[in-house]
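INFO  loader      accepted 1 record
INFO  loader      residues=217
INFO  predictor   begin
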Amino acid sequence: MDIEDCPPNTMYLLPKQLFIEANSLYKRFKTLHIHDIPTEDITEYNILQSKLLEYVKEHLTTEKLANYILTRSNFTNVSKILFLSGCTSPDYLRCLTLHGFKQTFGQNCHDYPKVPHIYKSNYIQYRSLYGKGMTYTNLLEPALHNDTLDTRVEEDIRNKYYDIVIYGSYARGMPYYELVCSIYQPNEIILIYGEDITTDDYKKYLPKGHNVFIREL
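INFO  predictor   done
INFO  writer      dumping tokens
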């Protein structure tokens, strides 16, 4: 409802026009019995449904989101990524974005510290997590995390082992930030913010030259 009033930079990738058209269609036949809905309206509905599904597949999977972040950051030849977190508690944007990078790069995207709940495990109480873990937990094979890389994170930063560094939720901590800034170019550092309430904190990172992605503006 009222999707037309959504600010342009909130849910930026959502195909809002398709929802506006769908809502308009719904208003035309919401009081009708299903057998009384005109054939042309059903045809229009099927077309909109198909368009939405195709758009989601093309733009809104976790892999597509990871690719979007790299493309908008002008990285077309990345092979190794360090994905840093200040804490590993659930964060939808951080967890699902990480899933996209892991699906795309496998072990070559190393999350540190390990975000345990996105991996399959017999020891994690997924139902006790935020939202009972729906959509963002128990997704990846454990082998996609190389535990040996955990022991040499600082060394690998100093040696610039990774092509870029991503902070999955800069609001929840930025480990090694000063060290990372001393080794990597500003544009090689990507910051992500997925909190419900947006602050102006991102504005202090833009002049530094980082690529910053905010869930809602």
